[in-house]
Amino acid sequence: MALERWFEWRVPKTGFYWAGKEDFKLVDVLPRRPGESLDARPPWLIGLPIRRKTGFRTYNPLSEDPLLFRWFASLEMTKEPVLEFANAYGSLTGGYLVLEEKSGAGRELFLGESLYFWKREIQELRDMLELWDNLNNKEALAEHIFWKEDTVQYMPGDRALRGQYERYLAFRKLANQKVRLLAEGKATPDKVATLEAKAREVQDQLLAELAESRRFYIGTRLIAYPGFHDRFFSTWYQKKDLVGPARLFIARTINEKLRGVVNVELGVVREDGRFGTALVPQTLLAALWLQFFFQVTGRSELRQCPICGRWFDTSKSPKRVFCTARGSGCRQKASRIRRKAYTLMAKGKTLEETAQALGMDAVRLKLLLETGRRYRLDHG
Predict the structure, then answer these.
(1) What pTM was computed for the model?
(2) How do residues 149-175 score in pLDDT, each as one tens digit?
(3) CA distances to 12, 193, 307, 343, 380 from 363, in Å
(4) Are the C-beta atoms of residues 147 and 240 closer than 8 Å to each other?
């Protein structure tokens, strides 16, 4: 049974803006799931006041832009690209921070999100997409999935970045040991201060390399070990397999991201009363991970619109050629292009000459002509 795409998300028509402690004070943090820890550091992404019920536009990212999750994962982790994305598609959660204006007659309450929250979410989806895209590239997988003794682990980033991270951990560990020895009278304050200064220097170098490599954080993640995931672990261990653990890590991460934020819903989808089933995300962030879920499970069949270039899902309509994005008018534009093409070709122009005159490539024009009613009539 095909899954329906039921979801609507709203975006303030006036857009969002960045604000900090000089204009707002943090009142509360609203976790989306029990025990969840959320970043509350400024700058904060803020839209309309909580009391405002109008001034929004709505859309369905699941059906209108099935590759939105890839655009999100490719974002630069700075204020301008994040703001551009938010103004086009909305905040990730609808706001989990309650913020109060420091000035103004009414001292309005707002919902906001931290830039650091956005950075982490971009990074986590980007890492999983990199693994997914490289499942058939063992050399690329070996950069991130590795066996250490009887465990299999994941480490993002390139070798140079990981080397810098290991160096930082070594200095930090040594500095911590010296602090303990100082407390026991077995080390001098000068030696401890020197080690701590070196650890800070290496940390600063690590942070600079993280920024240069478009990363927000780095750290090792344990994937499997004896006694955990026994079903396949022994086979993976004997072969020192990388693909199986990578798939397990992707599946586990998607499950964690969707747990508690996606509902299973049943509804009537036809006049004859036929039922339809949908996985309905509660937030845009959940919708982005659900799009990734659809790709991983083969529930999305993506096709590029020959008119606007937008990708759309054809899993429910395999014969559809053009996107149906709100306001695109791609089907009507294709019809106008066909009429112009037939007029030019009737005057003796070749397909290639006609395509050049219309400012498009011949392959795309041929596709447009083949999907038109006149072509189907002429070719039986």
Answers:
(1) 0.74
(2) 889 999 887 677 677 777 777 767 766
(3) 40, 68, 12, 18, 21
(4) yes
